[in-house]
Structure prediction request, 82 residues.
Amino acid sequence: MQLLKTTPQMRTNLERNVKHMRGGFRSQGFEIEDTPVPIVSVRGDLDLERIHAELTKRDIVVKVTPASGYSNAPDVCRVFTA
Prediction:
């Protein structure tokens, strides 16, 4: 938290990157929710490992999370990035 307070540009960059990522996924036909948190969730019947590999090639760090039913989220596999 202190880092964000002393380096406000980091938050600005994060917000810009999340907006860009959501727009990119939407332009490819994915349904992406707008949320106040800087997390982009891609859900559905997808080849998440292929998406992960393609994003990794582009130096975009993502995490494939197996279905686990955490919090109030649906029990489905996801790709997360922030």
In short: The longest strand covers residues 62-65.
